[in-house]
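G.,

No rush on this.
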Amino acid sequence: MTVLASLRPDAPWLSAGALMAFGSSFGQTFFIAAFAGVWREEFALSHGDWGAIYMAATLASAVALTQAGRLADVWRARPLALAVLVAFALVAVGLSFVTAWWTLALLIFGLRFCGQGMLSHIAMTSMGKWFRAKRARAIAIATLGFSLGEAVLPAGAIAVIGLVGWRDAWLLIASALVFVFAPLLAWLLRRERRPLAAAEPPELSAGMDGRHWTRSEMVSERTFWALVPGLIGPAWIGTVVFFQTVHLTEVKGWDLAAYAALAFPAYSLAATAGSFGFGWAADRFGVARLLPVYLLGWAAGAALMGLSGGLLAGVIALAVGGIGSGAVSVVHGAVTAELYGTRWLGGVKALTYALAVLASALGPGLSGALLDAGVGF
């Protein structure tokens, strides 16, 4: 049986996971960063001001996610994701009319919570619940949505802002969420693979010691705390690199449009290769065996970005980071299901996701403060 033939029976659910991942892009740092320049100018914000707003909004979304993420254990993926998409669209409409920095902060919270938070969480949790033997491969396929967004949306956002302005750009995004993403997702999930986590006990996959761990049990055991640095490190590094895209290109002397057009697709392709490579390895050897090596891609990418001079070197640096991003998406997506089981996976992953969001909040705030203090990128 060919690979495509083996995937065909599960295509609706795999496609739904990828669609949710792609839709989350409008709340991800790599997309929001395209608006950083116009928002800083519109509301007279310094690097530190903008970083503080972003940090506060993301911290708030991390706190909200620890509670809202539990809904993935009791709601079906279809109605939960559709509700998030509607809320996401309302936030986008609000952004098109924002007139003050404090309302911008509230709407950034909405972007982060709906996009980076809930849609990403629902996509990855659903893959963990719906698939067992080929869980890592399913996660790798779903992360194609992240990669597609990273490849096309930053440059697309810059182009649309130039054509219609940033306010109308958000109206277009709201329309896409309501009239494209929501109907397509509803159609893909018209027949859900797993209606509820508790509905079909034989489908559940146990974790360590043959148990299904609750969130409170997980945090009381030392393995979880050993995982935490690896859970938050990539979110910290990647968010700073994407969040400070405008500043990075300015200090490096690179053209912003050229960097977005070249570096983000290179990053996306590398992330796709990394996710499928690590997905194959995780299904074959177990995701826990990848923990000692999966962070090396982002470590090397960050070092190369610091050393890069020309635009090509910057593109290569971000591509190396992309390999690390693909590894991170697979390992983070699968390790909690493998270690802690799938019965309470929504609540478990909500906490791990919230920690990553917390790290992604601290990066922009600290980097903005350092830039204001004269510390170079």
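When you get to it, here's the other one too:
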Amino acid sequence: MERKLQSDKILFSTVVALVLFGMLMVFSASAEMAHERYGSTYYFVVRQAAAAVIGMAAMLGLMNLDYRRLRSPSIVFPALGLQLILLVVVFFAPLSHHAHRWLPLGPVRFEPSEFSKIVLVVFLAYFLHLREGRVNDLRHTLVPVGLVAAVTVALVLKEPDLGTSVALALIVAILLFAAGLELKYIIYPALVALPALYFLITRVGYRESRLFAFLHPGDDALGKGFQIIQSTIAVSTGGITGVGLMEGKQKLFFLPEPHNDFIFAVISEELGFIGGVAVLLLLAVVLWRGLRAAFNCPDGFGRLLAIGLTVLLVGQALVNISVVVGLLPTKGLPLPFISYGGSSLVMNLVAVGILLNVSQQAT
């Protein structure tokens, strides 16, 4: 008798709670700015709600689609080709915030790098499972993986988007390690990449200024250090219980993009230490349930898929929060499920849909 498949209700409920909480905080963080710029306090939250509906539909569809169907070459390689095409096409789109990151699709914009994150994880899970037991084969495993990863990372870096490109490189390294790659094959390339990373930071003006602002924010408090200073003020002002929902002051044209990259600062100011810890606990649940699904998965493809998607979601969250509290220089990574951004929200829910199906098949 076949085992009845059941979804992970804890993971599902946690993600739904994060999305709903995110919409509430997007409204709180953006209402004044939306009214000032667009004449409607609901401008950002309506768009976020539309993305949430699309993402939830995708999540529900994927959680009922056997993840093993993604193991087919007829799915993996066309998806890989499509994401590479999109990463090239985006350079012909108009500049936005001095970068080629978004493709205009009518009234909305799509960020191809968000799609690339999912596709790269699926490709790596497929290919590394195919090469199970031969992961340390330089010619037949590491070179093909390295070429695909290098082209993807280079195109994202060219947009320019250093934060996402580094995140993609880390995902590749983690999945290779999880597949059984010897540690020396990770450490040596990482040591070689450090001078290149140093060059990419110190030879590009705005990146160097971000690093300087991170190390010495007070030296240019009204310029390069303004973001991190305003963010830490918001976090520290909240205290234990916060100043109250909708009552935050730093979002009133002090914090740049308070509904996006710095939304955790708004959460900390309005809901205090308790609100910030609650978000961290919900993200910890996502980590727990994602890794649980991975370790209980009956096949290597599903295990690598779940590890990659879990690390993708939680890793981005940790980087975003670290930036907000001043532990890392400013990056362009949103807080998953909470930050404003349709492409990010939809792709994150796609990742959860796949995770939920892996958890259904887990023993």
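The first strand starts at residue 103 and ends at 105. The first helix runs from residue 9 to 38.

Enjoy the weekend,
O.
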